[in-house]
Fold each of these.
Amino acid sequence: MLSTLQEQLKEVVVQSLRESHKSLKEFPPVILEIPNDKKHGEFSCNIALQLAKPLKQPPLDLAAQLVVSIQKNIKASPINANVQKIDVVRPGFINFHLSPQALYGTLSDVLAQGENYGRASFGKNKKIQVEFVSANPTGPLSVAHARQAAVGDALVNILNFTGFAAKKEFYVNDEGNQINILGRSVELRAQELLGEKVEFSEDCYQGDYIRDMARIYLDQNKIKKAADLSAKADHIRQFAVDYLLDVIKKELDDFGVHFDVWSHQSKIGTQGNIEAVLDFLGEKGFLYEKEGALWFKSTDFGDDKDRVVEKSDGNYTYLTPDIVYHQNKFKRGFEKIINIWGPDHHGYIPRIKAVVEALGYDRDDVEVLIVQLATLYRNGQPISMSTRRGQYISLREVMTEVGVDAARFFFLMRRISAHLDFDLELAKKETPENPVYYIQYAHARIYSVWDKAKELNLRAKHADFSLLNNEEELDLLKKIGQFSGALVLCAEQLDPYALVNYLHELATIFHRFYDKHRVIDQDHALAAERLALLDASRIVFANGLRLLGVSTPKKM
RNA sequence: GUCCCUGUAGCUCAGUUGGAUAGAGCAUUUGCCUUCUAAGCAAAGGGUCGCACGUUCGAUUCGUGCCAGGGACGCCA
């Protein structure tokens, strides 16, 4: 693998540095980066530029001295065959050019590892909980939830592939004000259906699905008269929550997002648990009473104002059960908590960090990722959304209109901190404007060649690839070798979008190779090696797209 | 007013955590299918990296201050 070779080369540089500059007790970190221009080789090191000032020597001279020592050390090491040449270039870069042998090694690795190719131990089995979507069960999922779902799902997939032990969790807010309003909305619609004149206030949920639920409720319970609805409020509310939760689960399921754990506020934020955690905070002196309410001194932990936990009317605020929930997360043994929220919750971050610290945990062990909104466009016109008025595009609509693959891909295309413009018409197009197809097409092309090869009884080799030596083949091999690095970058950034970019670049390099060279060649020895290259490409496309939750069609 | 996100080609965006001549796609112009999928490839044009200072060998990247767009700031959830 290229990343291990990168590590080994780095060790050699460090060792050479120690030998050639014994006087130097400390030196800046040695970094081997991948240059953006391939004429600068596979890896580039800037250490000479960094040392120029402390050593008061021109960087070019320093680099030249260092290279002598590096070359000597490489000759004596097992990686000698993998390094073709080492250059010293203008300001003072040391560039490493790998030999084709180094790249053939990755090809054998990919073929041997198959669907496990790209796995890394980077995460060291750290237990991570990723909570995302967590929409109130008060209506179908919106497009905002859809992006969070796509991001959370892909992120956890990547984290697990790079060596973390990550779990997907959905927190169901099945209690509180919004849920009461939901119950009331359904109840009013039910009365209406039974011929009553009702005042349906602005606060109530306006969507048609409320009326549908009311109808189903009446049917299920065989209620014919408005009078029979009296004293049914709790029953109706529970029905509505259960019903909508099923809708949400089905939507997510169809979207390919499957949660490991569904937590319910009604089970975790019980009266007993809330009292216990408030007692705990009270004993620590983090609570006080003012104006008939109970306040949490979150300003002690960096928040800009204190927060009410128990209102003067005796009810708890939204924060209070959330305190219990976050304690619960840590009690379950997670070493890191990741919450994926919408931008409307960003003001909530200092509060929850304060909570975590007050509970005695490390505030840095909770990380909040704010996924910016996706603005939907149709023919260039933005579509505005409001849950309350029931005017919004749902996840369901996006899914049925553009398909799961395009939807998931589009939601992941931009880094999560950036606003996303999502044009439904563009995502629907089966043209080169649409980047999903560009990548899937590469995958499908491979299968097409594969079928042809089978007819001719040609098979891929598994070792010894000395015939792969033109520019396009070596570029493709190089890119394949960078797969694991791209995944680790995603894990570090806690954002899957770098994988999307990687796959797009891989597709570009693949298409270029495909266009210029024929795989099924008169020369069967060459064909066997190129088939191996194709198989390795297929594996990387498949592994990458699988992590993103995008399908890998064999025919298009 | 405080805080968060964003500002790179006509449009949508990359830029691998400070590197070398700032890159793709779309749109425009022009080539490439009797041979494995043209949903593809190749080429051309297109730039004050919002503005100004600062940090240093080097800044699109880091810091400060402005400018512009979007969003958040409840005893709502």
Note: The longest strand of chain A covers residues 165-172.
Amino acid sequence: MPTILDVEKESGVSKSTISRFLNGKTVTEQNRVKIEKAIEKLNYKMNPIASGLKSSKTFSVGVVLPDITDSFFPPIIKEFERNMTENGYNVILSDYGNDPQKEIRQLELLSNKKIDGAIIATSNSSGKHIQTCIDAGLPVILLDRLLPDIKCDSITVDNFNAVYDAVGRCIKLGHSNIGAVYGQYYTDNERINGLRKAMLDHGIKPEENKLLKINVQEDSPEENLGRLLDMRDSPSLIFCSNVYIGIGALKVRLRRNLRIPQDVSVLVFDDIATFPNHDYVSFIKPEFSNISQPLSEIGKYAAKLLLERIKTPWDSYEAVNIELKTRCNITASVAKLIKT
Amino acid sequence: MPTILDVEKESGVSKSTISRFLNGKTVTEQNRVKIEKAIEKLNYKMNPIASGLKSSKTFSVGVVLPDITDSFFPPIIKEFERNMTENGYNVILSDYGNDPQKEIRQLELLSNKKIDGAIIATSNSSGKHIQTCIDAGLPVILLDRLLPDIKCDSITVDNFNAVYDAVGRCIKLGHSNIGAVYGQYYTDNERINGLRKAMLDHGIKPEENKLLKINVQEDSPEENLGRLLDMRDSPSLIFCSNVYIGIGALKVRLRRNLRIPQDVSVLVFDDIATFPNHDYVSFIKPEFSNISQPLSEIGKYAAKLLLERIKTPWDSYEAVNIELKTRCNITASVAKLIKT
DNA sequence: GTTCTCAGTGAGAACGTTCTCACTGAAAGG
DNA sequence: CCTTTCAGTGAGAACGTTCTCACTGAGAAC
């Protein structure tokens, strides 16, 4: 492999000037020609390891996730990677398998590896490990949640307001007896609080026994949806706070042969068919009303912000939260109980 | 950040010995204690960039894919990453968006980045870019396909034999009027050839007008499945050579309200519900008979083989193909036309 | 007791860049 | 015409490791 010293010999231009040229600084026209000719002739490629040693930049960034087989992440990663690659960065993938302890270890490993930045979908409610990175000058961006006790950039969607608005629209259609099944995560919590607030602001008292919290890893969404349906005073509208529960609703619909929205109206957070090769649901009519997240956008903005942070010295910015808009699609799955 | 020289001063042991200790060579007990104490005290972490400069090892490997949002890949990547991480390697993700030209560029970028190895699901039928890497001493492992003209390790499943056997079983159940819809990829080709051979070996001449090749990006699987169903002498068994087409079959079943297997028998290559949060199909009875690929295993063996190749000097091995076994599950979706 | 072996050691070169700093010479300013 | 400026230059140090090589000294072999 030819080195910059070979190019120096071949071109007759000093390695300092060659290095400058390679890093985009201006050199005289005649030197540019000489250098380019020599590089071409030798098929010289700069060695990024040697380059990184002095500059302590690796042009690699980390992506730390709980589970890449969760359909939420691939579209985000795809767009993130595309944007980072376009800017000369590589993306290192780190799946911590939903293990909060492993998450901490993985982030530390990446940090020791001298990555230039990272995005992380954390499962720890404490952000100590993240704060450590930031303090060490490593830019980190939080994905899909906030950690109130640390100063850290984040990309989220407006879970609270999205549900607040969507449920508000359903209430205006006449629904007041509202139930929900929701999961154990940060986002589920935000969403269900949006629902509560919407009800309260419309003068409806949420019935807590109709808001069922489940552990999506352990509990069955279908079973809990069934409990709502089997109540004496069963809800006219059921909100499913994530895709797992939405799919539960789909199963219940088919199993019980439910008529939607005659028997019950349904509102789901997330898209049920996210994967291009798994869209075997959208044609079942009526589609569920849903709130869909701009997954590619999340990846895009994560890349954009991270690139900015990498450029800027660590102490000269305030942490920001980029809150992206969801898209709400109320379909025939929500009954109009009153004329509008 | 403390360096090895700080540890040298603190411990009184020379940096050579410290380096040896850090790389797992034996040092005397007393030196070990001194070094460990100094490292602990200074919170020293080895700088992998500096280390990589001399040793030209980055402990990073690449994963080059056409599309990470294809549900086929995440389970593979997950297991691959887990195994590589356990062995101290990082995984760099590179999604080339189904663009063969970009694939070549991305692999070259990774190669220039001095990764230690790579796995690639190629979309190029020529392996020139891969051969270039191998010749340069960079181990590359092919995923899910073979390239006959280059000497390269690969991990595949036994597409041909899996279909050969499965179709053979269907034929023994009495099916002889067999149709198929298949895609444009290498694997589709292997599979459909397995089908052809199975028919021929049972003395049945495949009717080529019932073996419909489609471009899964452009053509509609449903439409083509419909064409088979609408034939005067329509097949008693339809083989779908991949998950996209299998989902097409699912849609057709629901749209046309087909009775399976009374109206037609179905055999699908791949699992329809691969994603943990997308299993809203398996409960529709009868499940489609299918051939499922051991995705985690693919990731595991890819990691195993790649680690081996990284250890071994490039010219001392013969390229191998690891062909993993699929699992065939013939359900009630294939009618028994004759008593067995 | 003398030689041989060999695991363990430390000094210093090497890896291939970037960075620092002093220098050059042409253009600008007086 | 003389000073000032400043973009561009090249020599050599620096980055933090690993590698090479000559050396040590304890135990084995004779």
Note: Chain A touches chain B through 56 residues (CB under 8 Å).
